[in-house]
User: Which sequence fits this backbone?
């Protein structure tokens, strides 16, 4: 492991318990004068969204006003996600209503991108809506490094620390797609980024000046491409990561992970091309082929997965006008 | 007291505006496993909350009870406000809670995470509402309340606590309108049956037929209808699989009665049944008493009960008397006028889908705060009523 990476891991890896004293955190926030928005992207999350809003509002707005707004940005839920979120006091938005001039694309990345335009905070903390063991640490653990360390711009969550066992490292450290796709890719092309324990985690807090300057794939590749783009523009030092202990969520089926991997590969290879790191890559197809057994034969299932991408928000005229740029 | 009653509708409204504070505490308590004898993590959380709320002397005792004092203006007298920390759910149970617009669902949300949430949120609510009491509030999360715990936590607290209590209010998640001012005599017991290899007669069939005979005999014991007395067969387990004679079988039971000494009389008869069955079948049957609570009560017309009824009436909530089988017995046994109150409506008690309704909680909280104000104001004292 390079000395630089070792140094980064030591100085930029945090544990949420370091920031347990939220009164101190609040004082630090006031000192920096920064405002914080909490964004929860949703699509049919009625079972878990109520609890998230209740806990975040109580602990992060009423008890300690660390967060200035809590917003749910929805892709078009057909269940009661928005009704439940709104009943507990969250600001709720349909992504299609934000920046209507830019059209509406369906995908988590779209919600994250549109949140930059809609929300007011200098820092935006994104937290997924499907966390069963939600706790305020999922927000303050990520925001705190940004309040204390001005050189850090992008803080990722990780959970379930990879532990050393007699037969090596416990593979669940970073999740299945991370360990069999993203980490091998980073190891090949961006070894310094392998220090991120869970590059695909859905929880991260980022400064506005970074968010508005990076493009947003709207599908599965959003987290991977963020990391590559932030690394290219701001370097390894811009990253921080916080151990949030345990996160309980729905487990995805292997076939779903295949789709996710396909989207991530598209974004990854597209970035390599953009950075001039590829040789002669042929044109990439956007059809994923998976197989399933039907009676005595195997049937091919085709999925079109197109990693469409939103440009940096700062290039959008309506945003520039709103922000007075 | 009329002033307090007149203020109730407004108080309920103002409490509804602070909904998230209470609900978040209820959810967080509920998601911390706290099986009886394993309450330490919940007690830690309770202490954190009490410290954050500015309570004094926040600590735990040898039995893990969590306690803190919300100081009153004069602090000359003390009112105990308590909820039990333990649940019947093992750590392995999924403790995730679901919050819906009108209800919350999850193991222990009703019994008794909501009660605990009310206790720890009280100091913050009183401060935000600008309510100052003269008396200290002693805020307690008691351990070992359920099952084999046999309310040891509360017993220990009262035996060792140096503060004289003017009154006690025990908070339960459900049901709103419940007023418990008497405690039933309760004896809990276990019977462990074992048979040896090569046993003959009924015991040759294993421990389960022996236990079955025992239960039949127990159910033949005549129970008085007045005072109301019940024998509850709570749980049976034994053996290992389909095709192997069970070597052991176990029964958990409870006798409860409104009559003084009746539960003890029934228990003595069960002792005789166990001895007889043991001797006739050749099986080993071992009877143990794991809990014993005496009948205690204050009268229906005690000023504390009257005051509580007036508060419920002003809230347009129908009151109903429900004798307690829990900690109330210990408090009343020490001549501390006390009540158990319920905070909302709920269902599926002790199931994985325990459910509470959100809306009635604010009436429940208004009831609690007004009752404390009434005690503090002397409206519930025998000599001043």
Assistant:
């Amino acid at each position: 492991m390079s000395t630089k990476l070792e140094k980064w891991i030591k100085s930029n890896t945090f544990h949420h318990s370091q920031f347990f004293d939220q009164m101190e955190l609040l004082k630090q926030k006031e000192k920096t004068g920064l405002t914080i928005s909490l964004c929860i992207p949703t699509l049919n999350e009625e079972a878990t969204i109520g609890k998230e809003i209740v806990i975040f509002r109580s602990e992060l707005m009423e008890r300690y006003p660390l967060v200035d707004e809590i917003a749910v940005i929805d892709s078009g839920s057909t269940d009661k996600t928005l009704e439940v979120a709104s009943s507990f006091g969250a600001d709720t938005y349909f992504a299609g209503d934000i920046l209507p001039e830019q059209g509406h694309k369906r995908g988590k990345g779209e919600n994250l991108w549109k949140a930059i335009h809609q929300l007011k905070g200098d820092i935006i903390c994104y937290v997924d809506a499907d966390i069963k063991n939600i706790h305020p640490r999922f927000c303050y653990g990520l925001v705190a490094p940004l309040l204390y360390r001005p050189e850090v711009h992008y803080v990722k969550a990780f959970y379930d620390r990879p532990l050393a066992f007699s037969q090596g490292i416990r593979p669940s450290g970073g999740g299945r797609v991370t360990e069999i796709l993203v980490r091998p890719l980073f190891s090949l092309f961006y070894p310094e980024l392998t220090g991120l324990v869970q590059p695909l985690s859905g929880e991260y807090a980022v400064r506005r000046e970074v968010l508005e300057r990076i493009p947003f794939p709207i599908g599965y590749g959003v987290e991977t491409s963020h990391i590559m783009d932030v690394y290219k523009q701001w370097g390894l030092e811009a990253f921080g990561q916080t151990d949030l202990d345990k996160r309980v969520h729905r487990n995805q089926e292997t076939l779903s992970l295949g789709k996710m991997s396909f989207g991530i590969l598209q974004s990854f290879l597209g970035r390599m091309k953009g950075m001039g790191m590829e040789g002669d890559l042929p044109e990439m197809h956007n059809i994923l082929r998976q197989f399933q057994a039907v009676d005595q034969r195997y049937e091919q299932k085709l999925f079109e997965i197109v990693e469409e991408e939103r440009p940096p928000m700062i290039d959008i005229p309506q945003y520039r006008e709103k922000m007075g740029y | 007291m009329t002033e307090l009653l007149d203020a109730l509708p407004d108080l309920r409204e103002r409490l509804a505006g602070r909904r998230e504070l209470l609900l978040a505490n209820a959810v967080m308590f509920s998601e911390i496993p706290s099986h009886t004898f394993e309450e330490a993590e919940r007690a830690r959380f309770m202490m954190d909350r009490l410290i954050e709320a500015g309570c004094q002397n926040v600590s735990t005792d040898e039995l893990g009870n969590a306690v803190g004092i919300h100081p009153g203006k004069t602090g000359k007298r003390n009112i105990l406000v308590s909820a039990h920390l333990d649940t019947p759910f093992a750590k392995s149970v999924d403790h995730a809670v679901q919050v819906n617009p009108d209800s919350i669902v999850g193991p222990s949300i009703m019994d008794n995470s909501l009660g605990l949430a009310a206790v720890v949120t009280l100091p913050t609510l009183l401060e935000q509402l600008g309510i100052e009491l003269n008396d200290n509030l002693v805020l307690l999360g008691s351990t070992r309340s359920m099952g084999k715990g046999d309310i040891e936590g509360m017993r220990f607290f009262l035996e060792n606590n140096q503060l004289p209590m003017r009154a006690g209010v025990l908070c339960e998640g459900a049901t709103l309108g419940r007023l418990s001012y008497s405690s039933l005599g309760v004896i809990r017991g276990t019977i462990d049956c074992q048979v040896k290899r090569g046993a003959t007669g009924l015991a040759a069939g294993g421990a389960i037929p022996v236990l079955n005979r025992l239960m039949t005999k127990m159910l033949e014991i005549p129970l008085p209808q007045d005072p109301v007395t019940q024998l509850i067969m709570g749980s049976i387990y034994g053996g290992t699989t389909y095709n192997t004679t069970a070597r052991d079988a176990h029964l958990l039971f409870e006798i409860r009665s409104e009559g003084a000494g009746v539960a003890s009389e029934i228990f003595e008869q069960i002792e005789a049944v166990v001895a007889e069955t043991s001797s006739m079948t050749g099986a080993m049957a071992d009877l143990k008493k794991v809990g014993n609570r005496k009948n205690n009560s204050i009268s229906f017309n005690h000023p504390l009960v009257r005051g509580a009824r007036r508060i419920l009436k002003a809230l347009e909530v129908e009151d109903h008397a429900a004798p307690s089988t829990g900690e109330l017995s210990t408090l009343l046994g020490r001549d501390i006028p006390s009540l158990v109150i319920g905070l909302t409506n709920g269902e599926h008690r002790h199931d994985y889908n325990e459910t509470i309704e959100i809306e009635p909680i604010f009436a429940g909280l208004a009831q609690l705060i007004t009752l404390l104000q009434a005690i503090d104001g002397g409206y519930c004292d025998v000599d001043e009523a």
The longest helix of chain A spans residues 254-274. Chain A touches chain B at residues 47-48, 50-51, 53-55, 57-59, 62-63, 80, 83-84, 87-89, 132-133, 135, 248 (CB under 8 Å).
